[in-house]
Amino acid sequence: MAQRLQELPVFLKAEEFTVTVAAIIARPAFGRNRKLHEQIADANESILANMEEGFEQSTDALLASHLYTAKGSIAEVVVRLKGAGRRGWLTPAEYSQCATLGAEIQRMLGGWIKYLKRSDFKDRGRFIND
Description:
Distance between the termini: 14 Å
Strand content: under 5%
Low-confidence stretches: none
Helix content: over 70%
Oligomer: single chain
Number of strands: 0
Order of helices and strands: HHHHH
Number of helices: 5
Structural class: mainly alpha
Largest sheet: none
Shape: elongated
């Protein structure tokens, strides 16, 4: 069992995704639509934050709930990037890269959520050493 979230491949992929997205939305074109920029930035930040917060929860059900939220945030980022792509703010290849990576992370999170539902630990804290 991983002692730290940062040890998990899904976290490393999510980190790669969020860094890629942050670089894309830092472009001047996204400054023209501040609302879209903020929506993508907020959803992007939510991914890792929810994974981190969930990992600190005491039960698998609570962790799974946070992972669902992270999964939804990935979907939001991808759909908003698609709209930005229609405006020409990122290339089709860049969008495809983000969409593919996002889908991979969502599958990984989905598998983790299924595992958590099967194991259903009620006191996760006793298995994690500080």
